[in-house]
Every structure is written in C-alpha cells, then in structure tokens.
Design goal:
Layout lengths: L8 H14 L11 H18 L4 H12 L20
Helix pairs in contact: 1-2, 2-3
C-alpha cells in the first residue's frame, strides 16, 4: 500500500486513528471470513473511540452502527425521520 505525500491533515489524522484502532487487533485470518468480520466489528468500535475528539460526528455515526438496536434503516443516518413512539 503506497502513501501519498500530498495527503491532507484530516486524511493523515484519520489514517493515524485507523492505525491506532487496528494495532491491538489480530488480522491473521482469511479475508472475508467470519473471524475477519468479527475483527472488523471490533475495529469499528475501537475506531469510534479514537475519532471521538477530532471527529465527533464521525465517531457518533460509527457508534450508531455498532451499538444501535436492530433497525431496518441505516442507524448512522440521522437525517432519516425517526418513528414517533405511540403512547
């Protein structure tokens, strides 16, 4: 994988967060395997923590994907109308 010399500061910060989130995880499994998918799930949860200070909106979107209740819609998209709770 090559690194670009003209990366924006935001791109460099995002890359650093990705590297930090992935460091404690193991990727010694087949690409596309259930084990790799589990590792990626843990990665997304860890990445949201690493993004929280510099990219709070992105961190919230990742947290929504990992920790939201079951839903037929995209939990990271808060532009969608949330159903009203009937009482």
């Amino acid at each position: 994988m090559s690194r670009r010399l003209d990366a924006s500061p935001h791109d460099a910060a995002l890359r650093a967060a990705i590297v930090a989130a992935a460091n404690p995880l193991h990727f010694n499994n087949r690409p596309g395997s259930v084990a790799r998918q589990c590792a990626l799930g843990l990665f997304v949860a860890a990445l949201s923590d690493h993004l929280a200070l510099d990219f709070p909106e992105s961190a919230d979107a990742l947290r929504a994907l990992v920790f939201s209740p079951a839903t037929p819609s995209n939990p990271a998209d808060h532009t969608q109308q949330q159903p009203e709770h009937q009482q």
